[in-house]
Every structure is written in C-alpha cells, then in structure tokens.
Design brief:
EC 4.1.1.44; 2 domains; lyase; 4CMD/NDH-1_regulator; AhpD-like; single chain; mainly alpha; globular; 7 helices
Length: 127
C-alpha cells in the first residue's frame, strides 16, 4: 500500500509541480531529507491530492490560501505555478488573493500579490 501510495503521489506531484521541480527536489535529497521527501510524496501527494472529493483547481485554491495565511512565500511561489498548471487563470488567482486579503490580512495578501505577479510574469515570458 505504501509503495502504491508513493507511486500515485509521485505521478500527481509531477503533474501538479512539473518534472523540472520534482527532479530538482529529488536531486537535492540527502540521507537527512529522504524520509521527509518520501513522507510528502506518500501523504500530501499520494493520499490527499489523489482523493476524489475535490478537483485539483479547488485544491490549488485552498493551498494558495493556506500558504498566504501562514506566510510561506517560497511555497506560494511554487504553488502559483502549480495553480496555473491545474488550470487557474491569473484572474482566478487574483480573486483567491483578494479573498485572502479579507480573511488572512492585507499585509499577507500584499506579499502574496508581489510573489504571484512575479511568478505569473515568469510564466508569461516562458510561453
């Protein structure tokens, strides 16, 4: 079961974050971090992101909100890219961040808008 969960998790992780990101994470894995990498692949990606209850777009909206609320801007950067990969438009990401301004605070949303704008510009340049 754990091996299957890892396999499914890696499939979803690659689909959501992209091969390049996952490959970089795998390359940076050390004996110290390998258990953590396995854990997030099995549980976050293989157990939660594979559930039928929510689609990936909705999961991305929730993830963006949680990252804004907790001030995890580096993870937010990664998940803005993931949200686009999951089909969210820049307009929808903006709406999520506006919602965050009310419920997570204006300073948190202000920082999130700066990160998202930078990431969206990078994505546009890459296209």
């Amino acid at each position: 079961m754990s091996e299957e969960r890892y396999r499914r998790g890696m499939e979803v992780r690659r689909a959501v974050l992209g091969d390049a990101h996952v490959d970089r994470a795998q390359e940076r894995t050390t004996p110290f971090t390998e258990d953590f990498q396995s854990f997030i692949t099995r549980y976050a990606w293989g157990e939660i992101w594979t559930r039928d209850g929510l689609d990936r777009r909705t999961r991305s909206c929730i993830t963006l909100t949680a990252l804004v609320a907790l001030g995890h801007l580096e993870e937010l950067r990664m998940h803005v890219r993931a949200a686009v990969r999951n089909g969210l438009t820049p307009e929808e990401i903006k709406e999520v961040l506006l919602q965050c301004a009310v419920y997570c605070g204006v300073p948190a949303a202000n920082s999130a808008f700066a990160v998202a704008q930078e990431v969206l510009a990078e994505i546009e340049e890459e296209a």
